[in-house]
Amino acid sequence: MTRKLDFKAFILDLDGNIYRGDRPVEGAAGVIDALRKKGKKVLFLTNNSTRTPQEYTEKLRGMGIETSPEEILTSSIATAIYMRNLERGGVYVVGEAALKSAIAGEGFTLLDEEGARRAKYVVCGLDSGVTYRKLAAACLAIQGGAKFIAANTDRNLPVEGGYLPGAGAIVGAIVTATGAKPIIVGKPSKNIMGIALKRLGVGRGEVAMVGDCLDIDVAAGRNAGVYTILVLTGVTCRSDLRGRSVLPDLTLESVADLIELI
Ligand SMILES: [Mg+2]
Q1: How wide is the angle at C-alpha 77 spanned by C-alphas 44 and 205, nearest 5°?
Q2: Which of 36, 53, 79, 124 could covalently link to 72 via disulfide, CB atoms 3.0 to 4.6 Å apart?
Q3: DSSP the chain
Q4: What does the alpha-carbon distance between residue 223 and residue 130 come to, in Å, rounded to a whole number?
Q5: 120 and 165 assigned to the same domain
Q6: If you measure from the C-alpha of residue 145 to the centroid of ligand 1, how many angstroms do you get, rounded to a whole number?
Q7: Which domain holds residue 112?
Q8: 217: CA distance to ligand 1 center in Å?
Q9: How far, in Å, from the CA of 212 to the mean position of ligand 1?
Q10: Cα 217 from Cα 248, distance rounded (Å)
């Protein structure tokens, strides 16, 4: 008989774990249902900063998973929560609407390219409308003394046929130009994991982290001292585990396999 995973809560990565792009992973909805029936807490955790929790609840509902915005933590929301303790001031954001609205929601003033020189903070997330002008404004603000915060540093976004540049590619352009080192909020940082544990109201020994990326999800769990489960429905395959120093506590073909373990 397989040993049961006796955790109070599960932190679940979205893309590559619950769905791939717009296609649900088979059995994912059933597992979420089973976790709820067993009284487990669930938090969906994504580094994607381009959608709001409300938008994710709608996406998940379309896949047969009932949830609420409180159960969804994006790197945009985590960045805004991280900034809650910082002195208020002007923020120049290289990012999309979901990141901007989360930061504005914490009482920060959003600046445009002309105003960026007055910025106290530069925040960078994925921005599909990034331009040289935006990068230039961010670089000048940082050289003028603005603190540099990255919603996440994911190198790329897997799509059918290859990889698109992720937030990390944009952050990397600013780092290359300025030499500044950003504070990273998203996975694998302890920042977002701390926010996730607080939201769940559990200690690090009471939760398992489930995701498809070694460098992001497994590393995040490791950094936070949380039990890690790698699934092979996303960017990682079994052969990628060879010779790696950061390894998961458990590897499953799919999140659907959790059903046997809870
Ligand atoms: Mg993923």
Answers
A1: 45
A2: 53
A3: -PPP---SEEEEE-BTTTEETTEEPTTHHHHHHHHHHTT-EEEEEE---SS-HHHHHHHHHTTT----GGGEEEHHHHHHHHHTTSPP-EEEEES-HHHHHHHHTTTPEEE-TTGGGG-SEEEE---TT--HHHHHHHHHHHHTT-EEEES----EEEETTEEEE-HHHHHHHHHHHH---PEE-STTSHHHHHHHHHHHT--GGGEEEEES-IIIIIHHHHHHT-EEEEESSSS--GGGGTT-SS--SEEES-GGGGGGT-
A4: 31
A5: yes
A6: 34
A7: 87-184
A8: 7
A9: 5
A10: 9
Q: Is the peptide bond before 188 cis (omega within 30 degrees of 0)?
A: yes
Whole-structure pTM over 0.90, yes or no?
Answer: yes
Spacing, Cα 163 to ligand 1 middle (Å): 13
Total domains in the fold of the chain: 2
Last residue of a domain, one of 137, 161, 184: 184
End position of a domain, from candidates 156, 184, 212: 184
For the chain of 262 residues, list the mean pLDDT of each consecutive stretch of 10: 86 97 96 98 97 98 98 98 98 98 98 98 98 98 98 92 95 98 98 98 98 97 98 96 95 97 95
User: Nearest-CA neighbor of 17 among 158, 128, 155, 124?
Assistant: 158
Give 86 Cα–ligand 1 centroid separation in angstroms: 29
Return the sign of the alpha-carbon dihedral for residues 36, 207, 217, 182.
positive
Domain assignment of residue 81, yes or no: no
On whether residue 75 sits in a domain, the answer given is no
